[in-house]
Amino acid sequence: MTELARALEQPQFATERDPRLRLIIPIIVAIAFLMEQLDSTIITTAIPAIARSLDTTPVRLNLAITTYILTLAVFIPVSGWFADRFGARRVFALALLTFTLGSALCGMANSFGMLLAMRALQGLGGAMMTPVGRLILLRSFPRSGLITAMTYMTLPAIIGPVIGPLLGGLLTTYASWRWIFYVNVPFGLIGILAALRFVDDFHEEAVQRFDFAGFLMVGCGVTLLQFGLESIGRPIIPISATVLVLAAAVLLLVAFGRYARRVVAPAVDLTLFRFRSFWVGTLAGGLCRVGLNGVPFLLPLMLQVGFGMSPVTSGSLTFVGSFGALLMRPLLSSLLRRFGFKVVLIGSALVGSATVAGFVLMRADTPHWMIGSYVFLFGIVRSAQFMTSNTLSYADLPADKLSRATSLGGVLQQLSVSLGVSIAAMLLGLVAGETHVMTPERFHQVFLLTAVIPLISIPGFLYLRAEDGVQVSGHRRGGLRK
C-alpha cells in the first residue's frame, strides 16, 4: 500500500483516530472557556473589597471590568489569523499562559493602575483563548459530532456568569479578593500541559498578509462602541460625548464594511454573512442573547438591593440556573433531530421572552425554593437558545472558513454579552430616574422591557430553510425525507 493510500485511510479528525479525545479535548477547551467567562463576572461582588485595598472608589473600579471586556473585543478578530499562521495548539497554549500570568499578577496588584494593566493582559489572553479553542473543537470533531462539541463550548459561557458572583462572594468573604484571580492559576497550568499533549497543531499552508489597517478600524470601532455602551449604563463621560463616541464607532465600522470589499483578506471576513446559517445564528441569535444576557446582571441586583438578600443567598439562588444548563445539554441533540433548528430557535425565543417577563412575579416574600425553581427553568431555556444558535452558526461553513468564522463569531458573542448588560443597566437607570432608588417595582419594569428583545429576533429565525444545518441536526422533514 502506498503512502498516499495510507494517508487517505487515516481518519481526518483527531477524535476519530483516538476516541479518548472525544472527552479530553472538550474538557481542555471547556477549562479555558470557563476561566474566561468566570473572569467577566467574578470580580463584581469583590469590587468594594478591592476598592478598599487599593485605596480607590468602587465606582472607579468599574474600569477593571471595562478594560477586560474592551481588550477581549479588540483582539478577538485577529485570533483566527494567528491560529492559521502559527498553529492552533501553539496559539492556544500561549493564550492560556498569557491569561494565567495576567491572573496571577492581578492577584498581586498593589495599585489601581497595575490592576488595570494586568486586566488588559488577561483580556489579551482571553481574546485568543476563546475563538482558538472553538476552532480546535470544530477541527477535532466530524460534522456528525458537532452538536456535542459545541455544547461543551457553550456550557462554560452559560455557567460562568451564573456562578461568578457566588464564587466571588465566597472567596472574598472567607479568603481574600486576591483569590478570585489566583484560582485561575492551577487550571491554567493544567490546560497548557494538556493542550500541548493532546491537541493537534492545525494551521494553514498559505496564510494571507495580516490586514493591519482593517484591524485598526474594527478594533477602534468595537472599542468605541463598547465604551459608549458602558458609558450609557455607567456614566463615564457626558451624554453629548457619549453620542459622539457611538457615532464615531458606527462610522468606523461602516467604513470597514466598504473597505473589506476591496481587500483580499480583511481582518474580519464579512463574506461569512453570505452563509444563511451563519448570519442567522450570529446576528438573529445574538440579538436574542442580548435580551437573555441581561438577566444574570439584573437578578442578583434585584435579590440583593430590591429584596435585601445577602450576597451568598443571592448567589446560591442564581447558581441554580447552571443546573438547568446542564440538563439541556444531553437533550439538545434529540430536540434538533426531531424539530430542526428553526423550530427550536423560535420556540426558545418565545419561551425565553416569557420567562424573562415572568421575573416580575417575584416578591421579597416569595419562598426561596420557588425563586430557585424559576431560575432553574430560565437556565434550561437560555441554554437551549445559546447552544442551538452557536451550533447553527458553524453547521454549514466550509473548513477553510472556520478560523475566520470563529473570530467573528467570538466578537459578536462578546458584544451580545456586553450589550445585554449595558442595555439592562441603561434601562434600570432610566426607570430609577434622578432618585436612583432601585425598588423591586423598578426591576420589574426593566425585566418587562428586556423581555421584548428576544421577540425581535424571531423574524431572523424565519429566514431559515429546512436544509439549513441538516448535516449537523440530522432532522429530516418533507422533501428532505428519503
TrEMBL record:
Its main location: membrane. CDD domains: MFS_LmrB_MDR_like (cd17503). It is found in: Cell membrane. Gene3D superfamilies: MFS general substrate transporter like domains (1.20.1250.20), Multidrug resistance protein D (1.20.1720.10). It is a multi-pass membrane protein. Residues 25-469 form the Major facilitator superfamily (MFS) profile domain. The keyword Transcription regulation does not apply. This is DHA2 family efflux MFS transporter permease subunit.
